């Protein structure tokens, strides 16, 4: 029998945290699932860990491939999935036992294409923070909110296969840092979102989170620009209907790019791209002023986490 939910897990040199992640999946109270694992060219003991669980008889679909990147790996997981719904978890994150059980009933509404939940961000030092304690979240038809204030955490998301099938593209394989935000925003254009307002996943924050690796932030900003260019081509009347939102996002991305430049020590470059915005944006003025100060010291003062993961809304 085909499973109802296909859980997609993409791995790359995941030996440190993978066992804990797999145990959080196996402990689900909702049992009608399969686990589709893509090993994207790992060179550590990732495969041995996976094989131990396959031998134990857990419903695992396993595929090893040469390293192809995260977007391509996520698409391969979807292609190998047999369920009517898709859930996502990364190799270093965790689910609460009742995650799927709490989310699946919300798909009773046939117009709901995506269900998510609150999440807990945590690090190895014992710090933790609930995602929506101070951040906004939305339900229903919320394409505009996804576009301008992206708020989803991948580890909490479950999507309907029919919503995915309605798109001309799954994950954009050109993206490796914003592939999930792009896909879920496009789903939000035609489908409703629902939410379980309790933390059902835990997102691990650690020093290897790729968005904080030197130079990766600029790549992230480049992908956001590419996303917007794509929407201009594929969404009917995008320029006319979303001119204000598109302009807002472009400016927001310039400020984010400048912050990454500042973080990477390129203070002069950061100030240069901020200059056109100084008359129109208080935030741009604040970031411009901050570029005259050492970023590493400011960050330690402003955040309880070191090397925090970033999504487009951050």
Describe the structure.
- The protein has 314 residues and is α/β, with parallel strands linked by helices.
- It folds into 2 domains: 5-205, Spore Coat Polysaccharide Biosynthesis Protein SpsA, Chain A (Alpha-Beta Complex); 210-302, no CATH class.
- Helices cover 40% and strands 19% of the residues.
- The chain has 13 helices and 9 strands.
- The protein has helices at 18-26, 46-55, 70-79, 99-103, 143-148, 161-165, 179-190, 216-234, 238-241, 243-263, 267-274, 282-290, 295-302; strands at residues 5-11, 33-40, 60-65, 85-90, 94-95, 112-123, 128-130, 158-160, 192-205.
- Helix 10 packs antiparallel against helix 11 (267-274).
- The chain starts with a strand and ends in a 12-residue tail after the last helix.
- The model is unreliable at 304-314 (pLDDT under 50).
């Amino acid at each position: 029998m085909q499973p109802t939910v296909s859980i997609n897990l993409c791995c790359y040199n995941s030996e440190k945290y993978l066992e804990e992640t797999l145990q959080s999946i196996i402990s689900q109270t909702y049992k009608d699932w399969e686990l589709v694992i893509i090993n994207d060219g790992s060179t550590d003991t990732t495969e041995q860990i996976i094989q131990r669980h396959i031998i134990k008889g857990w419903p695992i679909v396993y595929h090893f491939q040469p390293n192809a990147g995260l977007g391509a790996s996520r698409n391969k997981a979807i292609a190998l999935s047999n369920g009517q719904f898709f859930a996502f978890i990364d190799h270093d994150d965790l689910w609460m036992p009742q995650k799927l059980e709490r989310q699946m009933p919300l798909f009773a509404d046939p117009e709901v294409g995506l269900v998510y939940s609150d999440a807990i961000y945590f690090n190895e030092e014992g710090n933790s923070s609930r995602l929506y304690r101070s951040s906004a979240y939305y339900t229903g038809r919320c394409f505009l909110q996804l576009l301008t204030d992206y708020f989803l955490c991948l580890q909490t998301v479950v999507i309907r296969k029919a919503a995915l099938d309605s798109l001309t593209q799954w994950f954009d394989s050109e993206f490796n840092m914003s592939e999930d935000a792009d896909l879920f925003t496009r789903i939000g254009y035609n489908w409703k979102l629902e939410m379980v307002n309790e933390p059902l996943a835990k997102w691990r924050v650690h020093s290897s989170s790729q968005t904080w690796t030197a130079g990766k932030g600029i790549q992230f900003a480049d992908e956001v620009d590419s996303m917007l260019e794509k929407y201009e081509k594929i969404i009917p009347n995008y320029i006319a209907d979303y001119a204000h939102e598109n302009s807002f996002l472009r400016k927001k991305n310039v400020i984010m790019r400048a912050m990454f430049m500042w973080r990477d020590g390129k203070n002069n470059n950061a100030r240069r791209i901020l200059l056109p915005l100084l008359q129109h944006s208080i935030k741009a003025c604040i970031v411009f002023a901050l570029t005259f100060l050492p970023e590493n010291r400011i960050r330690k003062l402003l955040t309880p986490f070191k090397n925090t993961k970033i999504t487009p809304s951050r």
